[in-house]
């Protein structure tokens, strides 16, 4: 790293970060990406490098990647040392981790530099901006793109942790169509629009969806709630909480133990091959320490219509960290591209490029 300020630093390594890096690198901005640290803390928080997509299995809805055998393509596109660390490709469509490795490589091919560390603190009060990596030192930057994403909320049950990726998921759109969920009962936890949307989506595959909600009415909007009530393949369990995910090492999830949230707090068990958590997301904005304007739910506010400008001139935001609505890999990649174009124009206007 040079001691003169970086032109552009990108914080985050999901689809938004890599897409921004690819565009910025092709525009000769020599972006520096902080992709996050590989640490137990990040593993537990769901904030390891490569973002939420790296926590999913097959990705069927990312444009340009139809179902097919990508093995030889992956071998030719990725460097051996990173390919060797990935699970073997088994003839299905692209997986989340594969897609993220491809995006990372694409950005690298055009000269993106990568630091495998977290940014713990920022100072956006004056330019050049100051960024504090976990490993120490200070990195100065003329322009910054924040693409740190969001993390799905989990209940924190040990059994939930144990069966993640073996029946426990926080993304129905990512995982719902997997064979293990076909014509089987599935449990969805939550009572908001996301829970209803996920439950409705999962009825396409499941024999029955059990929607488990801790209160006696759904938080979801009226129209969404009506959809859940009217769907014969959705059974709503009100005043009920997930107490334990049941399963074994061989089969993964086989059922759930539910507990009432009001007296007499009766317990029941249900058979299920999947448990989907839809209890909200938390954007990864705590490290900003209030220096960018956030929504009440702590998402970064885009200050201009259809632009990625934040409340600080020269700082842009892309992906789920600024989007609590679409939250798809492809929409994150789209806003990542927009942020790089916004940053490039901003740098040109300020004589930095
Ligand atoms: P949300 O509206 O915050 O709902 C989260 C749900 O999870 C609530 O029902 C909440 O219960 C429950 N919950 C939270 N913590 C829990 C815990 N520890 N144990 C059990 N249950 C827990 O989040 P969201 O559904 O992800 O929606 C986020 C935003 O996106 C909303 O503004 C929503 O309208 C929007 N959205 C819109 C659509 C659509 O229009 N198609 C689709 C998805 C999302 P309580 O109700 O008891 O608080």
Textual characterization of the structure:
This protein has 353 residues and is of the alpha/beta class. The chain folds into 2 domains: 216 residues, FAD/NAD(P)-binding domain (3-Layer(bba) Sandwich), CATH 3.50.50.60; 120 residues, FAD/NAD(P)-binding domain (3-Layer(bba) Sandwich), CATH 3.50.50.60. Helices cover 26% and strands 23% of the residues. The chain contains 10 helices and 17 strands. The strands form 4 sheets. Strands 1, 2, 3, 4, 5, 6 and 17 form a 7-stranded mixed beta sheet that branches. A 5-stranded parallel beta sheet has the order 8-15-9-10-11. A hairpin with a 6-residue loop joins strand 13 and strand 14. The longest helix has 21 residues. The chain is globular. It starts with 5 loop residues before the first strand and ends with a helix. It binds NADP nicotinamide-adenine-dinucleotide phosphate.
Quick tags:
353 residues; alpha/beta; FAD/NAD(P)-binding domain; seven-stranded mixed beta sheet; five-stranded parallel beta sheet; 26% helix; globular; binds NADP nicotinamide-adenine-dinucleotide phosphate
